[in-house]
Amino acid sequence: MKREAPAAAPAQVQAQAQAQAQAQAQAQAQAQAQAQAQVQAQAQVRAAAHAPAAAPQGQSRRALLLAVALLLASSALLLLGASVGSTGFTSLLQQGQDAVARQIVWDIRLPRTLGAWLAGALLGLAGAVAQGLFRNPLADPYLLGSASGAALGGALALAVFGVVPAGGVPWLARLGVQLGINGMAFVGAAAAVLLTLALARGVQHTLRLLLAGVIVGVVLGAARDLVELASPDILQAMQAFTLGSTSFVGWLACALMAAAWGLCLLLAAALARALDGLTLGEATAASLGLPLAPMRAGLVAVLALATGTAVAQTGLIAFVGLAAPHLVRTLVRTTSARHIALASLMGAVLLLAADILARWVLAPQELPVGVLTAALGGSYLLWRMHRRSASGGLL
């Protein structure tokens, strides 16, 4: 019995060595599997981020057809918007002979129509950026308190600069006041977004983000009310602001919105790689070396600039930024860059059609376009929820 003990020790050592070898082999196999999975994920993200043509050919064709259809609809609505008013088509037909008719068409109807199109384009673009950035189909341009911040900035600008009358003021002074209002609205929207992100500690927790947005919106709304109480002369202008209206949009406002829309569209297209990468997960996108922090900052700036400019010129118009990306997503699935462009065109068509309907439904009186978009947009979302409830989806 004493001679068997030395033989048992080498057997135990051999068994332990075999177990260690098996554990090392399993660890190597797991490492190889993780490396292969990471390589495959990187290939998928590169295909999504660097190769927009990787979308199915049929979807690319549908996206092109949708863009053409939206451009044609925009052209038709622009012509119709120049014809809708108290005098109907008469002013449009007689503008060559009648100076009053020419003034009605070129100084009132055309800037208002074009302004509604540009404001809708800005809101649709901002809605697509918000939904892609926060990976939440319920996100809209006003989710992070940007609307309340822009409204507070506009109220402060009106209190400081005063309400500019329609005439009797040099164009350079009007330009300065208009730029001041837009600048204050942009600063307010950007500050509200940054404050919401700081309270939510990032964008990882959707519930915390929504609660932070609600809190920031309520607080900034109360601050705007205090500004209105301190400056009663801006109450009428702020009432039209909160209801949403395109009645006071002129050529100067159209130029400012066009410049902001072009800049936001270029920046969003350049930063769309981040949205494509985030569709596969934040960790996977970060493993590719994508600079997510500066890209997020750029997208937040795009969201703030688009929302602030639109709100400064037309007031608070609901549901356009939320419904436009949904409609595009229902019709076609494509890359983030194309989706943002299509959502911008869809928002422009929606707001312009709503503005024309608001001018026509109670003619010669006008219905605030924000009230109409809220009613139609709410009905559309309720219909979508009822349609998707059977399948277990939300929207």
TL;DR of this structure?
By secondary structure, the chain is mainly α. It has helices at residues 4-50, 57-81, 89-93, 99-133, 146-161, 171-200, 206-230, 235-243, 251-270, 272-278, 282-287, 292-314, 320-331, 336-361, 369-388. Residues 1-5 and 48-55 have low confidence and may be disordered.
Word description of this protein:
The chain is mainly α. The protein has helices at 4-50, 57-81, 89-93, 99-133, 146-161, 171-200, 206-230, 235-243, 251-270, 272-278, 282-287, 292-314, 320-331, 336-361, 369-388. The chain has a single domain, classed as ABC transporter involved in vitamin B12 uptake, BtuC. The chain has 15 helices and no strands. Helix 4 packs across helix 14 (336-361), helix 5 packs parallel to helix 7 (206-230) and helix 9 (251-270) packs antiparallel against helix 14. The relative contact order is 0.14.
